[in-house]
Write a structure and sequence with these properties.
This protein is α/β, with parallel strands linked by helices. It is built from nine helices and nine strands. The longest helix is centred in the middle third of the chain and has 20 residues, at 161-180. Bound molecules: zinc ion (ZN).
């Protein structure tokens, strides 16, 4: 019997791994936390699966789920932004690219915010910025560790122009206040994290974790070449390269994330 297709994920029983080119059984990939059984390539994870992977079962309490984007500029590219929003909402079942809330990691209470690449490449518009800001503010009030997981390959959302750019400053300001209050902010970089998201909250963690092989950077290789004519070294925007150069503290396999984050919380979080 045919299965109902999952929202936001390409259909089919088989997947082609973009790293090793092997054809792999989707069920097996999903059973391995969306990791390739042949080469450990870390596939993009839809936000609901990410929550299930990181948090204790049934412990997540979502905040601000009703926030939905509007189209303040009446922006149109190939299609109108207002239509794009509706299409993406239908495809993913999400209102926008971020989901935030409170939950438990191996019994430790935390505030968690996630951006999902499946919704407009995880790009940050006003709603994403507002949700992350509120999450940081509530983590400050509740004196809880804060964990953001970025799947924002789209950076700042150009369809909202300056309003999306100002989210970079807004989230950063909330994180600075959280930091002044003594909070522990763990940032988890996943593939891909680019542009205005990499240039703001995604790289402001007290502890920077990255999944193996994630692409993390500001502008892509071609843009950099076109702008400054600099040939960049092989793999210069990968987790491993960034760790070697001090931007990332640890590269952690997805299967170990929950345990390692719990361990870091135990080690670093100052109890109220
Ligand atoms: Zn593979």
């Amino acid at each position: 019997m045919a299965e109902r297709p999952k929202k936001g994920v390409p259909e089919g029983l088989w997947l082609r791994c973009p790293t090793c080119r092997a054809t792999v059984y989707r069920k097996e990939v999903e059973a391995r936390l969306h990791v390739c059984p042949e080469c450990d390539h870390h596939f993009v994870v839809p936000v609901r699966n990410r929550i299930a992977q990181l948090l204790d079962s049934e412990s997540f309490e979502e905040w601000d789920a009703e926030l939905s984007p509007c189209d303040p500029l009446g922006f149109e590219d190939r299609i109108a932004y207002s239509k794009r929003i509706v299409d993406e909402q239908k495809k993913t079942g999400m209102k926008d690219a971020a989901v935030c809330g409170k939950g438990f990691i191996r019994g430790r209470p935390v505030v968690l915010g996630i951006t999902d690449f499946n919704f407009m490449a995880g790009s940050m518009g006003s709603v994403v910025g507002e949700k992350l800001t509120r999450a940081a503010e509530r983590a400050t009030e509740l004196r809880l560790p804060l964990i953001f997981v970025s799947g924002s390959g789209g950076g700042a959302r150009m369809q909202e122009g300056i309003l999306s750019l100002m989210q970079m400053a807004k989230v950063s300001a909330a994180l600075a206040r959280y930091d002044s209050a003594g909070g522990l902010y763990i940032s988890i970089l996943t593939n891909p994290t680019m542009g205005g998201v990499a240039a703001s909250w995604a790289l402001q963690g007290d502890i920077q974790i990255a999944e193996p092989g994630a692409m993390v950077g500001f502008a892509g290789k071609r843009t950099i070449w076109n702008t400054v004519r600099l040939e960049l070294p092989e793999g210069f925007q990968t987790s491993e390269f960034l760790m070697k150069h001090g931007f990332v503290d640890r590269v952690i396999h997805r299967k170990d994330l929950r345990t390692e984050v719990a361990r870091i919380v135990d080690y670093c979080h100052l109890k109220p």
